[in-house]
């Protein structure tokens, strides 16, 4: 394990806060420099075994107090709050000495922060190498995707996010299905596991598309050519790309629905702007369970 001011070349090294495993309550900037172990490394994977920082401010959900910043590779949004268990893929560049800087900036009042970030080096020939443009990359037939700082009770959707999420298509699987996670904290079926826009203290329908009264202009998740699972086929199949609002559905509805798509690669895109108030309030982000659908399936 290494801490502030270190250079990391060895695969699997942990970057931790000063005094770890005790929490860090001070302020300042703690940085580590990532360098390739050899020329064959194309990416760094940052695994957040722990990342607990001060969350965003409450009005527009901007990370003003604490910040986790990555510089020197592909564009990476600034994050804060709690993202334990999440990860990022960072482009390592073409040269052997292309440094990537990982910084944790802390300020404001005392807070028991901690971080333990595993740095993995991904070879260019690895099956676990992410596609270009993917900040997050998932493998396996089934899995779970969370936006940064998601929690159904204490989380807050972060502003100024703009990144790709990719799932590797496994052999003999031709489609993928997404379902919002169960929310054990839900009261009166008011689930918080997919709340991207609107006032999440009240019931907000799913909104879709780019035009009309119920469209997604500011904060949204792109799922290419998504349609609801189990929708009766009464004519041409209706698909959408942008989904936002208070539940996951490819149609304007207050009832959540699993959605599916046959578009490959299995890529998502998450975008939030820098403004929440007054139209958006208390949004948590999203938690999605995915499962790939076999090519032999009717995908209906």
TrEMBL record:
On whether Disulfide bond is a keyword of this UniProt record, the answer is yes
Indicate yes or no for the key word Disulfide bond: yes
Which Cys pairs are S-S linked?
A: 63-80
Going by the entry's taxonomy, the superkingdom of the source organism is recorded as: Eukaryota
| Residues annotated as domain CUB | 4-122
Keywords, A to Z, come to: Disulfide bond
Q: Which Pfam families match?
A: CUB_animal
The record ties this protein, via InterPro entries, to: CUB_dom (IPR000859), CUB_metazoa (IPR058698), Sperma_CUB_dom_sf (IPR035914)
Name of the featured protein: CUB domain-containing protein
What's the source species' lineage? Eukaryota, Metazoa, Ecdysozoa, Arthropoda, Hexapoda
